[in-house]
Each structure stands twice: as structure tokens, then as C-alpha cells.
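cache lookup: miss for this entity combination. No prior model stored, computing from scratch. Input as submitted by user K.M.:
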Amino acid sequence: MAGDVVIKGLMEGVDLLVAVAFVPSVAQEARRRHQLRPVSAALLAQAFASAGVLSALQKGTGRVNLQLECDGALRGLFVDAGVDGSMRGYVKNTLVEIELGAAFRWRGALGNKGSLSVLRDIGHEYYRSSVELTAFDLARDLDRYFELSDQVKTAVALSQAARGEEPLGAVAGVLVQALPSGDVAALEALARTLQGSLDAAVADPAITDGEALFTRLFPGLVVTERTAARFFCPCSKERTLEVLASLGRAEVQDIIDTTASTSVTCRFCATKHEITLVDLFGLLERLGAAPLKS
Ligand SMILES: [Zn+2]
């Protein structure tokens, strides 16, 4: 089985850009690292699929951040995705496991008030835009995000389905966006059936990778770009020490005086970085002064 992937294509004639993200391994890795209960894991999985298709709209080598804040049990989530296919993310509450029926499926987790923000790295600066949650469904609220913030006709669908015992066996997103010369009527027609088509394809056990999904949804469409996706966090002990150094000498001295060592857990990947007394004295030295006399 091929790995996770983000695939782009172009519907010629109608000038619609197509992006498909298939990211079950990323979602499963995040669930394992953060020890997520089922609903926390499912919503983070949707966010990875969303970030995957959003990253396909990026030019160059930038990153896309998707942030959701809400007053429901989940409280919020954050996903960071690169054009290079690297993805990482977390939820604020890892323990959500109750999902409601039918139309109100995610309502308990997301609550009654919240916002969705997309932060895009556009070269030397970041472009951030937010919308209030109204549908409390990530795909529908993303539709609204595109309508209000981007003002570019876009349709989004997200879906996930089990494969055997694995509830996140297939996790996928699809995005169709009109180019400036795009046929908006063709996009609107496509948008009406997009979620249903994706749900049907994702539910089909024969769809085991992104290529098969892309071909099922857009038969005959030529792939213009294919990027392998993976869970990846660039954090390290060295970077953690940089963060501690940025707190300043007094703060480092305080850690030495009070705890003698510390561990810092990365929010994005749950890796625990152990910082020893030797590391802390090294930091003090680098910060330009000898350790204070005790
Ligand atoms: Zn990390």
C-alpha cells in the first residue's frame, strides 16, 4: 500500500484546480503520539486532510496552519502542514470520545461557538484569516472560509472510514478551486456531489491509497503534482535549549536552583526532551556569564 500523499490535478477546459489528500498514516501517527481518544483523533484527522488540500494551494515552499478554537469538549486544535508534505498537529483535549448521531455528529466536541483560522506563509510574511464556526463541520466551515476570506470559488469535502479494526483506515480531503479563468457553473455543479462522491469512495475498501481515490473521483484527469505526506516535527533537544535560552539567564538559573533538571514536551509531537543540569550550565555559559554563586 502506497503511503500518504497530496495529489494535484487540473481540469482543463473548465480551469478548475483539484487537490486530493489521503492521510490515514499521518492521522494514526498523531493519535498514537498524543494518545487520542476516538473523537479527538477523528477531528484531528479531518484537520490533517484539510491542511493537506490547503497546502496544495500554496506556492513555493511555505507552510499552512489550520487552527480551530471552540467552546465544546475538544476546545481546539492546531495543524501545521508544509508544501513538502510534512505535517504535525495537536488537539487541546485528547480525551473526547462521545460523538452524537447524524447531523449533530461533532457538535458535542465542537460546542456552540468557535472560530476557524488559516494562516498561510506567503514568502516573507504570513496571511491570517478567520471565520466563525457556523456549521460545526470542518468541511462546511472551510467552504465558508473560502467564500468570505478568499473570495475564490472553492468546494471542500472531508471524509474518513474504517478499514477492518482501524477506524482511521482511510482519511481523505478533496478541494476543487476555480482558477481566475475557471468555469464557476461547472464548479458549482461539482460541489453539489463532491461530499457524497468522496464519502462513497472513502467507504469503499477497494480504495487503499491516494492514487486510487484520485482516479475514482476524477477519472481520466492528469496528475500535475504528487507530494508524499508524513507526520514530521522538526523539534529537537537543541531547539528546546534555544527556547530555554530565549527565556533569559535568570530563568535558566531559576530552573537550576529549583529543579536541577527539566523536561520539555513538544506540543506538536509529544516528544519529551530531557534537559540535564549539564545542559543548563552550558546554557548559562552561552548566555554570557558564569553561574551565580550559591
Ligand atoms: Zn515536536
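stored under new cache key. Residues 3 and 228 are 7 Å apart (CA to CA).
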